[in-house]
Each structure stands twice: as structure tokens, then as C-alpha cells.
Amino acid sequence: MRKVLFILTRNPFPPATGRKYMLFNYLEFMRDEFELHLLYVGEKDIRRGRIPSYVKSAEVLDRPSYQETIGNFLRFGLNRSLQERLFFSGHILSRIREKIKEIRPDIVFFDMIRMGQYALSIPEWSPNSLKIIDLDDLLSLRYRRLSAKQVSGADLLGEFKFMVPTFFTGLLGSLATRTILRIESWLMRRRELESLRNFDMVLLVSKKEAEILKKMCADSVARVLHIPPAIREVRVPSAVSKHRHSMGFVGYLGYYPNLESFLYLKNEIFPEVRMFFKDASITVIGRVSDEMISKYGDEGGILFRGYVEDIEEALSKVEVFVAPIFSGTGIKTKILTAM
């Protein structure tokens, strides 16, 4: 049985976000034909028991320390993107090298450019190893769009804001953040083009973005493929008791495009709906911080469900699914699920 080593920025179990869901799908589709091994950064609180038995081995890699992260900013200049600086560490590189020597994988799968940077520092490749990078979305395009918005330092880092000291994100005003986003967009575009030369296969969620990337580098040696999100076949209940005048919203509010959509729904759409239906409500599904709950939870009609194991069941109880989208790239799996 051929071996696949996944080098990931996160544990895909449980598949609580759109990105985790994509990684989860890869593993589910490959489980019967390949021997699967995982190396993933962080989340040490998630026990081995939550990794399914079809995964041969799974190991947590310590996140880079604050000292390492600050050193990366001083060390790399404009040679690496912000994404790469946050995830580069000598101990991670060493462990990846050791794992490759240990299992001799037939395929090595890199989760986005954040982890793809390690491929350039590993000379111990088997001649027949296939190197695959999943870019997810064209982040150069996403950051260019975000640079036109009022984005804070915390919004810029999203779910990875804990990887840098709090004082650093606090120093970043909107103008500084927009400047960083423009620089990051340029750096990511360069890395996206380099991926076409450094990997055997480049994956994206969106067919449109895959076509854009192909046109950016006509002499690419890599195969560029789009792998759309898959959703399981859903059993539709014959009769479901829905909450009257209820709306459903799905998204992790630590991710700026989701927060932007939620605030638009709360501030612009919801007051208009409540003019006609006083008992209207919004059910927010997805990981949410205590800070968000304390900030918005007392407002009438807004219910935070947090992460749910069965999103189809949760959505079946609302009358309308709402997903305003202002920024972001790729394909929104939540819309497919709601349909």
C-alpha cells in the first residue's frame, strides 16, 4: 500500500471549519487505498483518540515560539511571506526530515504555502516521491481585496492571531494593516508562481482560480487541478419542526470575512426583518470566542450555537439560511451544505 504523508497547519478532526473540512475530505477519500500519516502544527489539547483509526500515525508539531516568530521577521526580509514566517521553525523542519526518512512516503502533501515552504529545505526526497501542495485559495487575490477594507491587525491574522504577541497586533492600525496586506499579496503571488515549479501538482478549490494560476505561468511544470468541496449525501427529514422567522448563519467569527458578513447581517438585514417579525432570530453556527458572545450575545434574537457535530441537523431547524459575502476566495462549502 502506498504511503502518504500529510504536513498540515491544523488537525482536520473534527472538521469544524471550511479548510479543515477540505483536508478531512482528502483523508476520507484516500483511507482505503493509501497508508496515511499526519504531521500537524499545534492543537496539543486534541487527544490521539480523536484521530480516526484509519490514520496510521499522527503527530503534533509544536508551534514556533514567539522568539522564533520574531526572529523569522528579522531574518527573512522580503524572501518569505507573513504566512511562512508564522509557521517556520527549525524543529518542525527537523521532524519533517526525520519522518520522511522513517516512512519513505510515495506522496507528500503540503497544506498551503505555510507548510509548502518546508519542501524547499528537504533534500532527502525519494526520486519517486510525488510532491503536492494544496493552495486552498489564491491568497494573493484574497489579500489584494482585503487591502481595500478597514481591517485591524487581529483581523489580518484571523485564527492564527495567537501566534504573535498581543502587543504586536495592537500596534497595527487600519492603514498599517492595509499596507501589510498589499505587500503580503505581492509576496504570495510570487510564492504561488514558484509553487508551479517546485511541486508536481498544485491544487485549488476553485476552478476559476485554477485557470487564473495556469495563465500566470504558461511554462509551468506542475499539474494545476481544482478539487471542489464534497458534501455527504444528506437524509432530508420528512417533517422538521422549524423555528418561526428564524435565520441561520454559519462561520467562525475569528475569520474576518465571516465577521464582516455577520456584522452586516446583524446591523443591516436583521433590524429590517424585525420590523415585520418581532420574534425573528439568528442562529449563529460555528466556533465563537467568549469575547464575541459577551459582545453580541445579549442582543435580542441572536443565539450562538458554537461548533455543532451535525450541521445539517442544525440548519434544518431554521427557515432561511443567510450568507452575505463581501470578501474571500474559493468556494463556500457552507452554501453547498445548506442547499
Explain what the structure shows.
This protein is of the alpha/beta class. It has two domains: 2-226, 3-Layer(aba) Sandwich (Rossmann fold); 246-338, Rossmann fold, CATH 3.40.50.2000. It is 42% helix and 17% strand. It has helices spanning 18-30, 66-76, 82-87, 90-103, 112-116, 139-146, 153-157, 166-171, 174-198, 207-216, 256-276, 290-296, 311-315, 333-338; strands at 2-8, 34-41, 55-61, 107-111, 130-136, 201-204, 223-226, 246-250, 281-285, 302-306, 320-321. The protein has a seven-stranded parallel β-sheet with strand order 3-2-1-4-5-6-7, with helices on both faces. It has a four-stranded parallel β-sheet with strand order 10-9-8-11. Strand 6, helix 10 (207-216) and strand 7 form a beta-alpha-beta unit. Helix 6 runs antiparallel to helix 9. The model has no long low-confidence stretch (mean pLDDT 84).
CATH homologous superfamily designation of the largest domain: Glycogen Phosphorylase B
Query: In CATH, what is the class of the largest domain?
Result: Alpha Beta
The H-and-E topology, N to C, reads as: EHEEHHHEHEHHHHEHEEHEHEHEH
SS content category: alpha/beta
| Amino-to-carboxy terminus distance | 37 Å
Put simply, the count of helices is 14
Overall body shape: globular
- Backbone CA Rg: 21 Å
How much is the average pLDDT? 84
Total number of distinct structural domains: 2
Provide the CATH topology of the largest domain.
Answer: Rossmann fold
Across the major sheet, the strand order is 3-2-1-4-5-6-7
Q: Can you give the helix content as a percent range?
A: 40-55%
CATH architecture of the largest domain: 3-Layer(aba) Sandwich
